[in-house]
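[job 4471] stage=fold_predict status=RUNNING
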Amino acid sequence: MLRRKSGLGIATMMVAGVLLGALASGEVRAEAPAAEELMKQAHMNLYYAGDDGRAVVNMTLTDKRGKTRLRSFVMLRLDIEDGGEQKYFTYFTEPSDVRRTGFMVWKDPNEDDSRWIYIPALDLVKRISANDKGSSFVGSDFSYEDVSGRHWNDDTHILLREEEVDGQPYYVIESTPKKKDSFAKKITWIHKDRMLPEKEEYYDKKDRLERVFRAEEIQEIDGFQTVTLRSMTNIRKEHSTSVEFTNIEYNIGIEDGLFTERYLKAPPKKMIEN
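[job 4471] inference complete, writing structure tokens
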């Protein structure tokens, strides 16, 4: 018993000595939060602001020759559970070739998302396979998964470093899919104060950079830090897509009954008017 007490005392003194030495040299820092917790907070702030949300969205697609195409749509979101199930509804208003196209997602972190798209030219509601989540969303550089967000539990996260970019403080995190996916790894820059993912780099299995996401503009709306302009660049195709969110509203009382195939074909006018 005496030996145990003596050993503990020695260990305590050694730790105290190391800490005192570190304090004297200015090396002690507060322990960084766990990478998974940082990704969770950033995801919650980007995709779960308020209990629901609505926005008018203008999307610009630019090819390598600088030629642009425009798409406009209204997006609705309802959170069933904070950090859990969500439902998304997207209704296209412009241009004429995609007008009245509808896209709906039932998001469940514990299962594959359920996705549907309404094709007005065929008057057809089509179920989108869970394997298509990495496919292009209506020809843009954003994938179907990018629209509703990739859940933090789908990846393993490592905090690589903390750094400043243009005088702004960031956590830099590497994420690796737990299962085979459309990318091999992702590097995310999370702003320390806003706790939003403001840049993401996607790499293939040969460690080649494929796509880059950027939060171009951020505003506070109804008390929520909101990315009002975001972009995605496809490095290989030299193609980019920018998405501007306007007329943003939170907590407007969107009803669960809206997220059905019936309304995917013919949504209520009050919810889709610009």
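[job 4471] summary: The helical segments are 2-25, 35-47, 144-148, 261-265, 269-272.
[job 4471] exit 0
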